[in-house]
Design brief:
Elements: E1 7-8, E2 28-30, E3 47-52, H1 65-74, E4 86-92, H2 98-114, E5 118-123, H3 129-138, E6 143-148, H4 166-172, E7 178-186, H5 193-201, E8 205-208, H6 209-214, H7 219-224, E9 228-232, H8 254-266, E10 272-276, H9 287-304, E11 318-325, E12 328-337, E13 343-348, H10 351-357, E14 361-366, H11 368-375, H12 381-391
């Protein structure tokens, strides 16, 4: 299907005048004025960039300004030592209806993922995360969502889709296709204790800001288990990102957000991602635009450095560890891939849930710390959470 009619070209000022062969400007097949729309039918493409600048907080602002300002800095960055096959569709031109934006964007995302292409959305407001979820529903896929944000985006006060309640809309879906939810870097004092308790009762994966910063590598297994991610630049502290829609003096540092998103790029399971949260109508030279470009660069680098993870557990690459518990006949089986250095643990699935999710065994990404916890005769918290989801 051709989506050209829903897009307008990348603004002329975005393209670099320095056509260095190592810059992204020379390596991305972009939709520019006077050039044809990228042909993804007849040439190999791994990633498609989509500008979706619709932001309900200021409908008077240009819907192309934020995505193009981010592109300006992204296109001037140098690629790593790998070949890139990236197309840029330009900017989604729908501007008069959030419902229409979500409808069309979700269909585009689903179409791209069905082709094996990973879409990167440059927003705009993070309410567009809902379009990512709908794309998986269109494809008939259950999905896991990662939200990097300082706040829990749950608000039942209104049915209208907003940045504050996109998760409410997802959870209220009667034909719900969300299997698991992971929130990183939330700030406790910005969220009610009742809401945090509710999320924990749902057996969601929550790591507050201090936990992420203290052991940032422990975020990697959580990120490795998600299908799509929503990255709110407002999760970064004010000093590093002063022009976001939701600002806080505390938050992730600029290098920490890059590291987390690089983990997302490295995950072979993740198949779409969106970057949101810059105040619309901003100046080109804002640090926020430059930072978001560098965050996207880290995702792309991770993407092209992915190591194949076959999960063929009989392969000699996998070392198997059986951990039995003195108080139970059950055991947890851990697998360590000696090539990728990744750890996994197996969770049994009830007959009922096998039919619902079309799975017989579920492997949870984990770390060596989870194995060490199990070896001390303690069941890892995340194993218990997923076990309840798959057996209750």
């Amino acid at each position: 299907m051709s989506w050209e009619n829903y897009f307008e070209p990348v603004s002329g000022y975005v393209m670099s005048e320095d056509y260095n062969s190592s810059r992204y400007s020379s390596n991305i097949l972009s939709y520019e004025a006077g050039k044809p729309f990228p042909d993804i039918e007849n040439q190999p493409i791994d990633i498609v960039i989509i500008g979706a600048g619709y932001d309900q907080y200021d409908l008077s602002c240009s819907i192309t300004q934020t995505p193009d300002n981010v592109r300006y800095w992204l296109y001037r960055l140098y690629k790593g030592n790998y070949d890139v096959r990236i197309a840029d569709f330009g900017n989604l031109s729908i501007r008069n209806s959030l419902d229409k934006v979500v409808e069309i964007l979700s269909e585009i995302l689903a179409d791209l993922m069905n082709r094996g292409i990973t879409p990167i959305v440059i927003g705009g407001g993070k309410e567009l995360t809902y379009a990512h979820y709908l794309a998986y529903k269109i494809r008939g896929k259950y999905c896991n969502l990662l939200n990097i944000s300082s706040t829990l985006n749950f608000n039942e006060a209104t049915d209208e889709l907003t940045a504050e309640n996109f998760l409410s809309k997802i959870l209220a879906d009667k034909d719900n296709h969300l299997f698991n939810y992971c929130q990183l870097a939330y700030q406790t004092y910005l969220n009610s204790a009742e809401m945090i308790d509710m999320f924990n009762r749902f057996d969601f994966d929550l790591l507050r800001l201090g936990e992420v910063r203290a052991h940032i590598a422990e975020s990697e297994p959580l990120i490795r288990d998600v299908d799509f991610a929503s990255v709110d630049l407002g999760s970064v502290k004010y000093a590093d990102a002063p022009h976001t829609l939701f600002v806080s003096p505390n938050g992730l540092t600029s290098d920490e957000i890059c590291r987390l998103v690089r983990y997302a790029g490295l995950s072979s399971k993740l198949s779409s991602i969106g970057f949101y949260g810059i105040t619309p109508g901003g100046k080109l030279e804002w640090t926020d635009h430059h930072l978001m470009a560098q965050v996207i660069w880290h995702f792309i680098e991770g993407f092209y450095l992915r190591k194949p993870e076959s999960l063929h557990l009989d392969d000699p690459l996998y070392i198997r560890y059986h951990v039995a518990y003195s108080s139970s006949p059950d055991e947890i089986i851990f697998y360590h891939n000696t090539f990728t250095e990744k750890w996994w643990m197996n969770v049994p699935v009830s007959i009922e849930k096998q039919g619902k999710y079309q799975i017989h065994n579920y492997l949870i990404p984990c770390s060596s710390r989870d194995y060490q916890t199990a070896a001390k005769n303690e069941v890892p918290d995340r194993w218990l959470k997923i076990f309840r989801k798959l057996n209750d």
